[in-house]
């Protein structure tokens, strides 16, 4: 059986992503960043506006989106917020809608979901000539899945209203991800479904485009101890997520499996504490000006 990209099986992708969230401080580190920095970042996005337009690109199941919206709502309690979500996974959209239905304090927020990829949205907007502008756009942990990252950033940047902000969050160049992908990217099922990029690649794109931005490092880790227990189902799912490969344990060549599992334990990727291994999941938040 040949190795294939994790994204080629969306349910499997979502299952491994949920386990990753359980085992890592991925969302906690974002929440800490939102508490400390987001109020300053969104400080003036709604000044003089009757509504605030927020665009979530790859919004997933909405956990993070609702935190962002709560921060905007706290700053602008009386203004109506339009929150549009671009998300290709029907499964994620269903969970997002359930979350919204169960939440309180969302009266002033109008949600619209678009079941499509960022490129489909871009093409639809260009065809309709309806270039709606936004006060806050975020692309959180999703740039790996677009075909042309510079073009995607350029397109969403062009949709910013004056005073708006574009937030990108992705793995940091200091993370185990960046090291793992740099070393093994060419031997993993790299195809047009997933690109191995980290903060340094995005910063290079922004520099080349002459855009102004500020970067913040978000320390985070993931407990990957299960990956070293033979036959452990969670460990296998985490390995799928780490390598972005569907059924990595069953389909990867033995030598590749052995090398990756050995490297995952090394200090370049993980820290050993109390008999457990914590993978460096540091993220980077990049805030781009209009
Ligand atoms: C790692 S999840 C991140 C979800 C959410 N932003 C978060 O941080 O919790 C990536 C999301 O991007 C979505 N996605 C994948 N390819 C995409 C594309 N081409 N355009 C927009 N979203 C995409 C996936 O369905 C998934 O929900």
TrEMBL record:
Gene Ontology MF terms in the entry: histamine N-methyltransferase activity
SUPFAM superfamilies: S-adenosyl-L-methionine-dependent methyltransferases (SSF53335)
Pfam families named among the record's database cross-references: Methyltransf_23
Binding site for S-adenosyl-L-methionine: 58, 87, 92, 118, 140
Subunit record text: Monomer.
Gene Ontology annotations for the cellular component aspect, listed alphabetically: centrosome; cytosol; nucleoplasm; synapse
Keyword Methyltransferase: yes
Protein name according to UniProt: Histamine N-methyltransferase
Keyword set, alphabetical order: Methyltransferase, S-adenosyl-L-methionine, Transferase
GO terms (BP aspect): chemical synaptic transmission; histamine catabolic process; methylation
Alphabetized InterPro entries for the sequence: HHMT-like, SAM-dependent_MTases_sf
Organism: Salvator merianae (Argentine black and white tegu)
Keyword S-adenosyl-L-methionine: yes
Record: residues binding substrate: 26, 281
């Amino acid at each position: 059986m040949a190795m294939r990209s994790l994204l080629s099986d969306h349910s499997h992708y979502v299952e491994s992503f949920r386990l990753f969230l359980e085992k890592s401080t991925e969302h906690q580190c974002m929440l800490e960043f939102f508490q400390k920095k987001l109020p300053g970042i969104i400080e003036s996005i709604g000044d003089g506006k009757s509504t605030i337009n927020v665009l979530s690109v790859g919004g997933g199941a909405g956990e993070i989106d609702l935190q962002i919206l709560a921060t905007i709502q706290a700053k602008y309690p009386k203004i109506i917020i339009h929150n549009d979500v671009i998300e290709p996974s029907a499964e994620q959209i269903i969970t997002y809608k359930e979350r919204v239905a169960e939440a309180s304090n969302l009266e002033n927020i109008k949600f619209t979901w678009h079941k499509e990829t960022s490129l489909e949205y871009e093409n639809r907007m260009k065809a309709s000539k309806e270039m709606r502008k936004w006060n806050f756009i975020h692309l959180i942990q999703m740039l790996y899945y677009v075909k042309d990252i510079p073009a995607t950033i350029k397109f969403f940047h062009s949709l910013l209203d004056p005073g708006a902000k574009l937030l990108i969050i992705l793995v940091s160049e200091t993370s185990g991800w960046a090291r793992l992908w740099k070393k093994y990217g060419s031997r993993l099922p790299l195809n047009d479904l997933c690109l191995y990029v980290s903060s340094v690649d995005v910063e290079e794109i922004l520099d080349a485009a002459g855009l102004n931005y500020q970067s913040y490092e978000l320390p985070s880790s993931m407990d990957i101890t299960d990956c070293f227990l033979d036959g452990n189902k969670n460990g296998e799912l985490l390995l799928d997520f780490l390598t972005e490969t569907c059924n990595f344990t069953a389909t990867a060549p033995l030598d590749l499996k052995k090398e990756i599992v050995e490297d995952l334990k090394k200090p370049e990727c993980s820290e050993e504490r109390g008999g457990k291994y914590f993978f460096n999941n540091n993220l980077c938040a990049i805030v781009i000006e209009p």
